[in-house]
Design a protein that fits this description.
Length: 327
């Protein structure tokens, strides 16, 4: 009985609540699945041109925006935040979780989910109503899998309607985007594997797959039959098409470098879809600097675990590539 009691006590000690995880990582919860880690504002550096540090190839981003993969919890995403904190300790970080239900939710429900991201961007000083007294903003966006990409596209739509930070302005942002295991439409098999990872409980996984399959079939039939009348393409197809636009995010442009990492060991997002997308982005000059890199043998969104040094070197490379001396 005493041994059992000791075991229970040990288990209780190792159980860390989400709130404790967030606090220990140096973040605060802004909204459901959205977390902010803002460094001390050194004289509100983003608000006055006089106090803004001089930009250079190795200067830090002001904001690092991390969109997690479907079903990602805070703990694994915090490992990437720790890596970024080691590279760019002066940057504010925003972590955005992606929930499985996001794929079949209505547009206004999706918009509501990313509203806390807008608030977090405003809190960092990155979003303002005017560019009159704001130095050049610097942002690095890190997107994991289709779940992260769908949230990024939704955020872009919300921002364009909000009146904050228009895509065309006299003082454009310095930005770079790092794509991890994205994009790819896949098939029913890859979708099942994705939900197996995202929803461990067999009962709830079956319910989620039922919703997802019904949504995909219904959306596909509606798109096929009603496209002549203006009905939009299926969600994942719209996502891929949006990513092929230079300004798929309000702060992105043709000058925004992109890096894609992929693996033939990825059983959820087919590697050839990522490569084909990167090739199209390169061919049609969507971005002036496009790089795609294979990680041998790594699983879906597990490339950093496979080769940490190479992964973070690629992150630094894409950020350095975003520097323009004449800006």
């Amino acid at each position: 009985m005493l041994l059992r009691s000791n075991r229970l006590t040990s288990a209780q000690k190792t159980t860390v609540s989400l709130d404790e995880q967030v606090e220990q990582a140096g973040f605060v919860t802004v909204g459901e699945g959205v977390y902010l880690s803002a460094p001390p504002k050194d004289g509100d550096a983003m608000k006055t041109n006089d106090s803004a540090p001089k930009d250079g190839p190795d200067s830090h981003p002001d904001v690092i925006l991390i969109f997690g993969w479907m079903g990602s919890s805070f703990r694994p995403l915090s490992h990437y935040a720790k890596g970024y904190a080691n590279l760019y300790p002066g940057a504010a970080q925003i972590i955005v979780q992606s929930y499985p239900s996001y794929f079949w939710e209505l547009p206004w429900t999706r918009d509501k989910r990313v509203a806390p991201v807008v608030e977090a961007l405003k809190e960092t000083g990155f979003l303002t109503n005017s560019d009159a007294h704001v130095p050049r903003r610097k942002i690095l966006t890190h997107i994991f899998s289709n779940g992260g990409a769908l949230q990024a596209i939704t955020l872009s739509s919300v921002l364009r309607k909000s009146g904050y930070y228009p895509p065309t302005q006299a003082n454009p942002a310095r930005s770079a985007v790092f794509f991890d295991s994205v994009p790819g439409v896949g098939n029913f098999g890859t979708i099942k594997r994705a939900f197996t990872l995202a929803v461990p409980n067999p009962f709830w996984r079956a319910i989620a797959l039922l919703y997802m399959y019904s949504f995909i079939i219904g959306e596909g039939v509606a798109s096929l039959c009603l496209s002549p009348f203006g009905y939009p393409p299926p969600t994942l197809r719209r996502m891929k098409e949006a990513l092929e636009e230079p300004a798929f995010l309000p702060w992105a442009s043709r000058e925004t470098p992109r890096t894609y990492v992929w693996s033939k060991g990825d059983e959820i997002v087919p590697w050839w879809e990522v490569r084909r997308h990167a090739a199209r982005v390169r061919e049609y000059k969507v971005s002036e600097r496009v790089r795609d890199e294979e990680f041998e043998g790594s699983a879906h969104v597990a490339h950093m675990i496979k080769d940490r040094k190479r992964y973070w070197d690629l992150v630094q490379d894409v950020w350095r590539a975003s520097y323009r001396e004449n800006k």
